[in-house]
Write a structure and sequence with these properties.
With about 700 residues, the chain is mainly α. It has helices at about 1-25, 45-50, 60-70, 75-85, 85-90, 95-125, 130-135, 140-145, 160-170, 180-205, 220-240, 255-265, 270-295, 305-320, 320-325, 350-375, 385-400, 410-415, 425-440, 450-460, 460-465, 470-475, 480-515, 560-580, 615-630, 645-650, 655-660, 670-675, and strands spanning about 155, 405, 520-525, 530-535, 545-550, 600-605, 635-640, 660-665.
């Protein structure tokens, strides 16, 4: 009954105003002449709910949500299976005529690149190269079944290899007489445990619906972190490229200590290793320049890494680089596949934080790159399903002695450039790696490690190009520049695992600083419109007599609520004296239509359209300010409240006496019109028909 009365009154009022506006003369600007503000229609939130026929939304209880999720039907079961196993949705519709050629070329091209990158990244981890080949086989098969992106190349990833290598470098022998093979076995054990634990963390994130957790790693954090990781890797490759013995340092400034070892041992450099590194670098850099120069004429980029590996292996055998020149080589590569073994997780407590870092970084890269390719080529990727796929890649891969994997930017770009059509290309790359492991893996036992080190260093040129971000961030956002530099420095100082944690914490602190830095803005009306803008930025924006219009552009919560509302009190108190309403408080009879006596001589309109949320502390502080201002004769209106804040005003600690001082309006203009319509006489001419901004 009450709603019907409101609807009837609003409809009658609106009909009268519409008829009146149609009869009024209109000037050249389209605005009616001599329209007093109290004749304009000012709609508050309650009236707007009636006019818009707002639907009541009752939140489901916990049992109702469980019942909804657990209900089973044939269509729901089919949708669940197709969601968990995306291969079932596209493989039955696979067209050999349209897709086979593109997938075959892409699979072979990426498989060729998988070989040198897998072996090189295994060196970054600190394990024998064959484990890099394992990591380039099993995860590809898993992602073929569970993944949703057709352009991502899953396998070894240099950044993750560096992070795992910083952990395996901490493996120390209790007995100095233990053979080197036991050192490698201990490192493999640590890498496998970390990978399996990383997969379990990613599966837990999937169950908790954490597909968006990668967004917490901002772009400046990631780019600063990866740049530091690239510098760290380059320093670690210097001993292999020069033949100078150097220890793997842990703790603070590990790269600096490694560089110090290389500089102090420069007199003991191996000429053979220096020669191999120099020639390999010239060939690889020159080859990449040729690929870039003739990329429009070449159907597929020439795989210079593979050519370099084949040439290096042949020359190593022919020239006996191991015996005559003391050049380090890859060594024994076992043929065949290793049987699956469940990792023991005996060091799970020590490896949890590094595994968490690897899980977050790996998924962040996969989610970001997958979205880029999906948007570019017009298809959908499910980040939550890809999180499940990546978790299974690492969990299953850990059982087969793989180390943690993710998508590789360079291989994914090759996969895109070769016109890939589906995930079938990943399966073909896996078949290539299987052939290498079963038949020709032993041919690379004489490959010099210096060649792999050069491949790693040259392929890091993309990470080093990220230093260009400094100039861009200096121009657009210097606070993000500080985050970028802090991420770089913390990673170089504290190593890769702890450095990432420090960078993320610093990034979140800058987010808090941004909310603390914001200040309330005084708005004024631009004549001839119903737009309200900052009076300090717009010279034509004029304050409305008797009204203080304020806006705050950030969330209000416990950390900044006191600062925000202190600014509001001070601004209203100052404006109350400088910008009076021009009414007499004794004129109570003239305001009988508004239903209250004239004890209010001023109005404060608070624009909350840019406030995304307010916590309970800020909400209580808002009520307190409204009560205090009401005592001082200032009426408080709230305008443009988001739906979440409207719900909080109704349910979270709202008191009747507090709400009696508040009025809610859909926009600042409606609030101003309502205040002016309640005054005994018009203060200024407000044009109600202006276009809404």
């Amino acid at each position: 009954m009450f709603l019907d009365v409101i609807h009837s009154n609003v409809a009658d009022t609106w009909g009268e105003k519409r008829n009146t506006l149609q009869m009024d003369s209109v000037d050249q600007s389209g605005f009616p002449h001599n329209r007093p503000p109290y004749q304009a229609v000012a709609v508050d939130e309650a009236q707007l709910d009636v006019l818009g026929q707002r639907l009541e939304q009752r939140p489901l209880s916990f049992l109702e949500r469980v019942k909804t999720q657990c209900c089973c039907s044939g269509a729901r079961l089919k949708s669940l299976l197709l969601g968990l196993f995306p291969v079932l949705s596209w493989l039955p519709r696979y067209s050999i005529r349209e897709n086979a050629v593109g997938d075959l070329v892409s699979g072979i091209s990426v498989g060729i690149i998988q070989l040198p990158q897998g072996m090189a990244n295994a060196m970054l981890v600190g394990v024998p190269p064959v484990f890099g080949l394992y990591s380039s086989l099993y995860p590809l098969i898993v992602y073929f079944i569970f993944g949703t992106s057709r352009h991502l190349s899953i396998g070894t990833f240099a950044i993750l290899a560096i992070m795992i290598g910083s952990v395996t470098a901490k493996v120390e022998l209790l007995d100095n007489a233990v053979e080197q093979i036991d050192v490698e076995a201990a490192k493999v054990n640590v890498a496998v445990q970390l990978t399996f634990l990383c997969g379990l963390i990613q599966l837990l994130m999937y169950l908790l619906r954490g597909g968006g957790v990668g967004r917490w790693l901002s772009d400046p954090v990631i780019r600063g972190y990866t740049t530091a990781a690239g510098l760290h890797v380059m320093v670690l490759q210097l001993p292999l490229m020069t033949g100078i013995p150097a220890q793997r340092h842990t703790g603070l400034l590990p790269s600096v200590w490694t560089l110090n070892d290389v500089l102090h041992g420069v007199t003991s450099a191996v000429p053979g290793a220096l020669s191999v590194s120099s020639v390999s670098m010239v060939i690889l850099i020159g080859g990449k320049i040729l690929n870039e120069r003739f990329k429009n004429k070449l159907p597929v980029a020439i795989p210079w890494e593979l050519i370099l590996i084949v040439m290096g292996t042949i020359l190593s055998v022919q020239m006996d680089l191991v015996g005559q020149h003391k050049v380090q080589v890859v060594g024994h590569i076992p043929s065949g596949l290793s049987p699956p073994v469940l990792p023991s997780l005996s060091q799970a407590r020590e490896l949890f934080l590094p595994a968490l870092s690897v899980a977050l970084v790996g998924f962040s890269f996969l989610s970001a790159l997958g979205s880029v390719f999906a948007n570019k080529h017009g298809y959908h990727v499910d980040s939550s399903q890809d999180l499940l796929a990546l978790g299974l890649c690492n969990t299953v891969g850990g059982m087969f002695q793989c180390f943690a994997v993710s998508c590789s930017f360079s291989r994914s770009m090759v996969q895109e450039s070769t016109s890939v059509k589906s995930q079938m290309a990943g399966l073909l790359s896996a078949l290539m790696m299987l052939t290498i492991l079963l038949k020709i893996g032993q041919l690379f036992e004489q490959l010099p490690k210096a060649v792999l080190a050069v491949i790693i260093v040259v392929n890091l040129q993309g990470l080093m190009a990220q230093f260009k971000d400094l100039c861009l961030l200096w121009k657009c956002d210097r606070l993000d520049l500080v985050v970028w530099v802090a991420s770089l420095i913390s990673t170089l100082v504290f190593n890769l695992d702890l450095g990432l944690a420090v960078a993320v914490i610093f990034s979140l602190l800058t987010l808090i600083y941004r909310t603390q830095r914001s200040s309330t803005v005084v708005l004024g009306r631009i004549p001839g419109t119903d737009c309200y803008r900052d009076v300090l930025l717009y010279t034509k924006a004029k304050p409305v007599a008797g009204v203080t219009i304020l806006s705050y552009p950030s969330p209000i919560y416990f950390a900044n609520s006191q600062l925000v509302f202190t600014q509001i009190r001070q601004t209203v108190s100052r404006d109350h004296k400088k910008n009076p309403a021009g009414v007499h408080t004794s004129s109570s009879s003239s305001s009988s239509s508004s239903g209250h006596t004239w004890r209010h001589t001023h109005c404060m309109v608070l624009d909350l359209s840019s406030v995304t949320f307010m916590d309970s502390v800020a909400m209580l502080a808002l009520f307190k300010v409204a009560e205090d201002l009401d005592v001082q004769g200032v009426r408080v209106f709230l305008a443009g409240c988001p739906e979440r804040i409207l719900s909080q005003l109704q349910t979270q600690g709202c008191k009747a006496d507090s709400l009696s001082t508040l009025c809610l309006f859909p926009s600042v203009h409606h609030a101003v019109l309502r205040w002016l319509s309640t005054l005994p006489r018009p203060l200024e001419e407000i044009k109600p028909d202006a276009t809404e901004c």
